[in-house]
Structure formats: C-alpha cells, structure tokens
Design a protein that fits this description.
The chain is 5% helix and 63% strand. It has 768 residues and is mainly beta. It has a 22-stranded antiparallel beta barrel. Strands 9-10-14-15-13 form a 5-stranded mixed beta sheet. Strands 1, 4, 7 and 8 form a 4-stranded mixed beta sheet that branches. β37 and β38 form a beta hairpin. The termini are far apart. Keywords: Cell outer membrane, Membrane, Receptor, Signal, Transmembrane, Transmembrane beta strand, Transport.
Length: 768
C-alpha cells in the first residue's frame, strides 16, 4: 500500500514539475487552413537537437519541455522553413503560419496539389493530395497510384504481396468486400491513406500483413464551404457530387450527396490442361450505380468538450454479367450468367471527447451502428447443372469503445482503451425449384462478439522514442445452419504485444524498428462446410476445423530527408504459424473443388525503397521498388502439396509531376508488376503507363482534369494455377485505355475548425 501511494505521489509530482510546455496550431499563411504532419523541432540555443514531433490532423502541436530558452523550427514540404527563438515558462501558446514557397514560374505551391509521405513511429501516412490520375475516379484509382499497394484484375488489393490485409475507412471496416467498398468511395473525398505495416497494440489484431486506413475529408469551415464535381469517361461512366458545410463558432453542419455510374468490361480466355481438359472464352461487363448521402453535426460547447453526430447512407447496386463459350472435346456449349447485386448500408455514428489540461490529455467515447442489406442473385441462361439462386445477407453491427490518453510527464505518455463489438449476420439462400419458384434451401444465423483492451506506454530515452503495447482480445463466433441443424462455434482468447523504437540522429536521419504479433481468424465462408457453387464448373467447400493463423512480424526502416531528396528504405521479416492455404482439386464429375486448410509454417521477408527527388521547383520525381518472398517451412509430406515451395513478387512505380505553368500541371506514371510466383500459381508481368493534366481556373477554385489510363493499351493479366492432376491458364484483357475528364469547383469562406476525434477501427463481416 505504501509503495502504491509513493508511486501515485511520484506521478503527480512529475506532472507538476514538468508542466512546462509549448503548443499551438500551424496554419497556411494565405488560406489559414491547418497543416497536418508538419515537422516540429525544439533545439538548444547552440543548435543541438532536443525534442521533436509532428502536427496532428488539425495542425496542432504539443511538446512538454523543461523551462528554458530554445529554438523552435517548423518544416513542411512546399513551405518555407520557420525558425523562432522562444522562452518556455509555464504553458506557452504559439500559433505559427507558414509561407508557401515560390517557384521560378512565379507560382505559389498550393498544399494538397501533390502527394506527401510522413513516416510515424508505427505507420506511414500518405497525404494523397489532389492526385491528377485519380481525379474523377474512385478509391481504387487512388490506391493504384500508391507504390506500397498492389491491385489485381478483380480489384483485390495486396500489401507486401499478401491480400491478408485489413482495409478500414476512417478507422472502421465495412460489411462489403474490399473491391465493392473501394468502388463506391469517390477519389475527391479521400484526404490521406495510412499504410500500417507494423500496427501497434491500439489496432485490432486481425490482418496478418497490416492495415490500410483510408481517411476521408471531414473539414467544415466557419462560414460556408461548398464543393461540387462532375466527370465522365469513354466507357460511358459518369459521376456528380455536391457537399455543403456551414460553420459557426460552436457548431458545424455538413451535408453531401453523390452519384456514380460505373462501367467496366473485358475479355478472357481460360483453358485446363490435364484431367478433364476444356477451353473457355468469356466476355465480362459490369454496370453499376452508386448513390451516397451523408450529414453530420459537430458541437463545441466549450474548450474542454466536443460532440459529433453523423449519418451516411449508400445504395450500391450493379449487374455483373458474363458470356461463356466452352469447348470440351467436340462438345461446344454457350452460357450467360446474370448477377444483379444490391448493397445498401446505413451508418450512425456518435463521438464525444473531453479534454483535461491540454490537447494530449483526453478521454473519448465512440459508438457506431451499421445496418447492411445485401441481395445477391445468380441467373443462368440457358439453365445449367445448377439452378438459379438468390442469397439475402443482412448484417447489423454495433460497437462501443473508450480511449484514454495522458502525458504522465514530458518523457512518458500512457494510452489505454476498451472495445466491445457485436455483429449478427442473417443469411438466407434460395434456389429455383422444378416449378420455377425460389424456395429456401439454407439459412445461416451468425453471431460474432469481441471484447478487447489495450495499453500503450510511449517514452523517450535520449534521441530514441520507445513505444510498448499489449492488447488482449476475446473473440466468440457462433454460426447456426438452421435447416441442416449444424452449428459452428469458435472461441479464441489471445494476447498481442507490440514494440516500436525510433532513433532520430539529427534533423535528416531517422531509424525505426517495429515488432508485433498479428492473427487472421477464419471467416464464415472459410468455415462453412456446405458447398457453394458459382457456376457448373467450380465449387467451394469450407473447412469447419480451420484454426486461426498467427504471425510474428519485425520491420526495420530508415528515413533520410534533406533539401531536394527523400529516401525511405525498409526491410521486414514475418513468421506465420497455422498458415491458411487454398487447395484445389477435381472431383469425379470434373468440377474444380476449392477448399482451405492449415498447412504449417512459412517465413516471409522482403523490402522496399522509396525515393523522392525535386531537382527543380517545377519537377517532382518519385521512384519506388517493393520485393516480397515467402517460403514454406514444413516437412516433406506437406511441402509436396505445393507446386512451388515459395512465393515471391516485386513491383516498380515511377511518377513524374511537372508544373508547366502557373495554372497547368501534368503527371505521368509508369507501373510495373513483375512476374510473380505463388504456392499454387504463377502470374506474368503487368506493365502500363498513365498520364494526365490539370488546369486551374477562377483563382484556383475550379480545376479541369483530363487523364489517359493505360496509354499504350498494355494492361493484361495472365495467370497459371495448379491443382491435383491439372493446371489452368487464364488470360484477361480489360478495356483499359480510358480517357476520363472531371471538373471540380469549391467555394470557401472562414477558418477551418475540425473535430479532433480519433479514427476508430472496428471489425465486420464481408459480403461479396
């Protein structure tokens, strides 16, 4: 008891004697908009580095330091460096405005016109800016421009060569599959992307490779904030959107809506060699409509309390149609599959934050309700081996979380939090009977509940930032197949540690190390023992005995920033246990059966190198290279199941942005995905060039954009997959040389005041 009292007294005393601090907001001198992720450094009067940090999403900075005289320096790309001698006594408040750099073309560099990268202790933050090549597009186009992320022909994304990545929007996942989610988010709503390859304990442990968190624009100004956009492309797609915000001293209101017509098409060829050979030609077309509506309210009753309410609704409907012509020996058959899908999602959000003595000491409550309805139909023309069918999935998710942050003293900060989440999935499968009427053949009621708690301590020892964390998760998953009287039940309790170190040698050199433990829990589709048949030649069967896989991950990175050059090399190592692998074989009817199983251990390693060079005020160059390899570490019996005992891939991205005049910019990007190998597949290289131009009008309030995707029409996906007794070749050529145009207009007045609420993350099911 005496030791506990002494500990409490020491903490209170340390807070008292170390209450000296310097804080403020960093803004653009012209627009008065806050500048997030600006570098803030305190130096001794001799010029020696003492302490540093970055501004948050709202441009706020806060440094606790002993009383004394110091040199304050603030830097951000596109702005002149700011320096000021300060004397810290008590809580010093110092707001800073940065002046934009002026180029040789007498142009002021506007923040947000180009992508910038900030490396934090546990994640990389990419401010995507007003990316020319993504203008008028969706989140898919934004992610395609990022070298850390790879995409395939189906819209699936990979991080470090693996699709086992958790994708969030504003810290929250969606009930939709990743490709559905990315298609419905307009590119102009995206502010930045967090690529978290070494997540700390504050993040959910699901997702072996890491987390991709897409942060959308949430700024509301004092006064009126109006934005409108319109666009189209040569495929016949088009889009339009409008948003309006109105801010007062203590209340902000916002409302917005958008519509997107999505059209894609392509031709494919698939052939099987070995048992039951065939050749299949197909034409694919996608026709979608996405309606979005959102509204929100922020209330600032006083300097210590903030409230937010938000509602958003999305109606994402599309038809996925495929024509097949198949040859099996002398038999030639033709078929058309019609897949109309309807996805409707309604989200309600609430957030409250209470500040104590400063912006770094707060308590926050966050709650979200999500109601998602999905109607997935499959019609075969003419009728084949399988009947027309329909799946109705209704998902309801509720989440409540609390977080507490407190700087114990100028060198130690504590973070702690708790999350409760409950998800219910009601899934019904109907098939057409002999009378042509749909009747129920299966119903699944699935409940998932998670209780999670974390604690993180962050401190600084000399020039080394140290962050250690521990997360505990209790996860329950129960699935009842009503008609079959079958139950799947899983209960997992796991503890996940994390450790991050960052050493700042001086203003230019930073070295970081990260370790964490992650998991990938089997999804319902992977556990479902009932056969799911998408067409007459392929079925999927889940494995109810599947166990979670775990990974131990280590990463070492280096950052160099000086003048016109930035360099970011990194290497990583990943050890997986209970590795979940897809397995394919032919049944007696010659149908391809796909299932999953735990096959043992794998070791993965790789690295990346990103370089940015700004040789002149009118030219920006970005070059990135990523390499990933994963090797099987199993006994010979298990290893024989693989076609390859390793998988590897690499990619290169080279971007050039040119300022042709005060109002005209151009961008050209080369993307190269090298030949890749998997345990059961190989893929040929994918190579394409995209270009675009932007013209600014009306003093920058209006932008006209024209882009040409896949300039030389080279984008083609060629794969070979292997199964027991056969292999299959596939060749898919999308209609990829597309000209797009867009026009955006914005009108703003007043100072931006934005909520400081944290980006929460939750988990949810996935509906294809």
């Amino acid at each position: 008891m005496i030791r506990l009292l002494l500990l409490i007294m020491s903490i209170l005393w340390s807070q008292f004697v170390c209450s000296q601090s310097i804080s403020g907001v960093v803004k653009d001198s012209e627009t008065q908009a806050p500048i997030p992720y600006a570098t803030v450094v305190l130096k001794k009067e001799t010029g020696a580095f003492l302490k540093g940090g970055i501004t948050d999403d709202d441009g706020n900075y806060f440094l606790e330091i002993k009383a004394g005289r110091y040199m304050l320096e603030i830097e951000f790309m596109g702005y002149q460096k700011f320096s000021l001698n300060v004397e810290v006594k008590g809580a010093l408040k110092k707001d800073i405005t940065l002046l934009a750099e002026v180029s040789s073309l007498d142009e002021v560099v506007v923040v947000g016109e180009k992508t910038t990268v900030t490396q934090l202790i546990d994640k990389k933050v990419i401010n995507v800016g007003k990316d020319i090549l993504a203008a008028g597009g969706s989140a898919s186009q934004v992610l395609e421009q990022l070298s850390d992320i790879s995409t395939d022909q189906n819209g699936n994304i990979s991080l470090r060569g693996s699709q086992n990545v958790n994708v969030l929007v504003n810290g929250k996942p969606s009930p939709l599959s990743v490709n559905e989610l990315l298609r419905q988010i307009p590119a102009n709503e995206i502010n930045k992307v967090e690529v978290i390859t070494s997540p700390s304990a504050k993040y959910r442990a699901n997702g072996l490779t890491g987390i991709i968190n897409i942060i959308t624009n949430k700024k509301v100004q004092k006064g009126v904030n109006f934005n409108a956009d319109i666009g189209g492309n040569t495929l016949g797609g088009y889009n339009a959107g409008v948003s309006l915000g109105y801010g007062k001293e203590k209340v902000n209101y916002k409302v917005g809506g958008s519509y997107r017509k999505l059209l894609f098409e392509g031709d494919g060829l698939r052939e099987r060699i070995g048992e039951n050979p065939f050749e299949q030609k197909n034409h694919f077309d996608f026709n979608g409509d996405v309606f979005r509506f959102n509204t929100g309210l922020d209330w600032f009753p006083n300097k210590n309390n903030e409230f937010s309410l938000g509602v958003d609704f999305t109606d994402n409907s599309h038809d996925i149609n495929t024509n097949f012509i198949e040859e099996r020996g002398e038999e030639v058959t033709s078929q058309r599959t019609l897949n109309p899908h309807i996805h409707k999602t309604l989200n309600y959000g609430f957030n409250y934050r209470h500040f104590f003595n400063n912006q770094e000491h707060f308590f926050e409550i966050d709650a979200k309700l999500s109601d998602n309805k999905n109607d997935l139909r499959n019609t075969i023309v003419p009728e084949g081996i399988i009947a027309d069918n329909q799946i109705i999935n209704n998902v309801f998710i509720s989440n409540v979380s609390g977080d507490y942050n407190v700087p114990i003293n100028d060198e130690l900060k504590l973070e702690a939090g708790y999350l409760w989440e409950f998800q219910r999935l009601d899934s019904k499968s109907d098939e057409e009977n002999e009378l042509g009427v749909l009747e129920n053949v299966n119903q699944l009621i699935n409940d998932q509940e998670t209780h999670a708690a974390y604690v993180i301590l962050t401190t600084k020892l000399y020039n080394v930032d140290i962050q250690g964390g521990l997360r505990a998760e209790d996860y329950k998953n129960t699935g009842d197949f009503v008609l079959q009287n079958t139950r799947i039940k899983n209960n997992f309790f796991n503890v996940f540690p994390s450790l991050h170190l960052s050493y700042t040698y001086n203003d230019y050199h930073t070295i970081a190390f990260g370790y964490n433990k992650r998991t990938s829990r089997p999804g319902l589709r992977q556990l479902n023992p009932l056969t799911t048949q998408g067409n007459q030649y392929a079925v999927f069967v889940g494995n109810p005995d599947l166990e979670p896989e775990f990974s131990d991950n280590m990463e070492l990175s280096y950052q160099f920033k000086k003048g016109i050059i930035e360099v970011y090399p990194s290497v990583y190592f990943r050890l997986k246990k209970n590795f979940i692998q897809t397995i394919r074989f032919l049944n007696e009817e010659g149908v391809t059966v796909t299932t999953v199983d735990n096959i043992g251990k794998t070791e993965g390693y790789g690295g990346s190198l990103s370089m940015r060079l700004n040789p002149t005020k009118w030219l920006d160059n970005d070059l990135s290279f990523n390499y990933n390899r994963e090797e099987s570490r199993n006994d010979a019996t298990v290893a024989e199941e693989f076609f390859n005992d390793y998988r590897e891939n690499y990619n290169i991205t080279f971007r050039n942005q040119i300022k042709l005049s005060k109002k005209l910019r151009a961008n050209a990007t080369w993307n190269y995905q090298g030949e890749s190998k998997g345990f059961y597949s190989t893929s040929r290289q994918v190579n394409y060039v995209s270009a675009g131009v932007r013209y600014k009008m009306l003093d920058g309030r209006m932008n006209l954009n024209v882009t040409l995707d896949d300039v030389f029409n080279q984008r083609r996906y060629r794969n070979r997959s292997f199964g027991s007794g056969f292999y299959e070749n596939s060749n898919y050529k999308p209609l990829s040389r597309i000209v797009s145009f867009s026009c955006t207009y914005n009108f703003r007045s007043g100072d931006i005041k934005k909520r400081n609420k944290k980006q929460k993350q939750y988990e949810s099911g996935v509906m294809d």
